[in-house]
Design brief:
By secondary structure, the protein is an all-alpha fold. It has one domain. Helices cover 68% and strands 0% of the residues. It has helices spanning 2-7, 10-35, 46-67, 73-79, 82-86, 92-98, 106-122, 129-156, 164-178, 187-196, 204-210, 227-248. Helix 8 runs antiparallel to helix 9 (164-178). The mean pLDDT is 88. The chain crosses the membrane at residues 12-35, 50-68, 106-125, 137-160, 189-207, 219-242. InterPro entries: ABC-2_transporter-like. Keywords: Membrane, Transmembrane, Transmembrane helix. It comes from Streptomyces adustus. This is Transporter.
Length: 254
């Protein structure tokens, strides 16, 4: 329904999609400005940072496209309109995810893909079968990890109803963090996004393997292939948190 509504105004769709593309492209422009003054950032060259940026942008862009509307759950909890979704014969999670579905978010995915294409064209990578296999795994598992963060953040809004910005700190903030190499951050932060909120499995760990770099925290090489398993575990935990929050929902009381 939302796609049909969007495509009813083609010019508006094109302009908003381009606006989404341009707004996200400014992040990469900032990186280009940094590299106009330095040759490397944390020991990583521009194409290598672009590789991280493209992977993060595509994984997050796909998750944002599929389930980015979850940050509106808090307003539904506050005004009681979530009750409407509870009486329909469709999973509430699917309804919340599809609410005001924004096809314009494709602009972020396309922008990330273009930067990733530039990085792959500029880098001299020794393409072994394992490295080739990691490329689609990174995007799919990264999308799954970000989807889990979206759902877990939405579940938190059952408790703290005005917490969309807390959720955004881990979703939008997380993808911004992953656009830069792990070597520019403190080791405690790298440990946190590896063992606590495993965003490092989106690109830092597998990308280091593909680029022939040592993995952060001196982790063994096989960890780079753990992204799909981590994504499944994160989705399972996020699903459990969602079901717990939904069972605790008691409407507005009015």
């Amino acid at each position: 329904m939302w796609i049909r509504s969007t495509m009813a105004y083609r010019a508006s769709f094109v302009m908003t999609t381009f606006g989404n593309f341009a707004a996200t492209a400014l992040d990469f422009v900032a990186i280009l400005l940094m590299f106009s003054r330095v040759d490397a950032l944390g020991g990583w060259s521009l194409p290598e940072v672009a590789f991280l940026y493209g992977l993060s942008g595509m994984a997050f862009g796909l998750a944002d496209l599929a389930i980015g509307s979850m940050d509106r759950l808090g307003s539904r909890v506050r005004d009681g309109t979530l009750d409407t979704l509870l009486v329909r014969p469709v999973p509430v999670l699917a309804q919340v995810a599809a609410d005001r579905f924004g096809l314009r978010r494709l602009g972020r995915v396309v922008q990330g893909a273009l930067v990733l294409g530039y990085a792959l064209a500029s880098l001299d990578i020794d393409w072994t079968p394992a490295r080739v296999l990691l490329m689609p795994w990174m995007v799919v598992s990264g999308c799954g990890i970000f989807c889990a963060v979206f759902v877990a953040g939405a579940a938190f809004q059952f408790v703290a109803q005005d917490a969309s910005e807390v959720q955004n700190a881990f979703t939008y903030g997380g993808t911004t963090l992953l656009q830069y190499p792990p070597t520019v951050f403190a080791q405690d932060l790298v440990r946190g996004v590896t063992f606590v909120l495993p965003l490092a499995f989106v690109n830092w760990l597998p990308a280091s393997y593909v680029l022939g770099r040592p993995l952060p925290l001196e982790l063994p090489g096989w960890v780079a292939f753990a992204g799909p398993a981590v994504a499944v575990a994160c989705c399972a935990l996020a699903g459990a948190a969602w079901r717990t929050g939904l069972r605790a929902y008691r409407s507005t009381g009015s």
